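Dear Dr. H.,

I hope your travels went smoothly. While you were away I took the liberty of generating a structure for the chain from your last submission, since the lab meeting agenda had it listed for discussion. I wanted you to have the full record in hand beforehand rather than looking at slides cold. The sequence, exactly as received, is reproduced here:
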Amino acid sequence: MSYDNDNIFAKILRSEIPSERVYEDDATLAFMDIMPRADGHVLVIPKGAARNMLDATPEQLAACLVTVQKIAHAQIKAFNADGTTLQQFNEAAGGQEVFHLHYHVLPRHEGIRLRPPGTMEKPELLKEHAEKIRQALS
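The corresponding predicted structure, in token form, is as follows:
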């Protein structure tokens, strides 16, 4: 399978679609998931083309995981979380829906289940959660 330059995350990288960005470096971008399964749910993506981890370069994978760890620490601080869940899917059979490599980073609290997928969050709440994470990063 080939990489589609018109996938939604590629459009976010090009700022063709708005996103609530929380962190960016030369190789990665972290932004709020618009359908969060937990408060503070962030997506981490490489800036270069990569359909998923099966075709990503070792450098893209390493850069993403460094950012994932940075975001997870900030989420735990920002949301007083007890832990974190990391999800990453590859190809449709593996559960992937957007075909640009991405990691879901979800702050978790003991005894609180993830919300079901598919519910859009209010932009103002995403902005508030993003600001909490940005503050924790600084």
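Two observations you may find useful: The radius of gyration is 14 Å. The first helix runs from residue 8 to 13.

With kind regards,
E. W.
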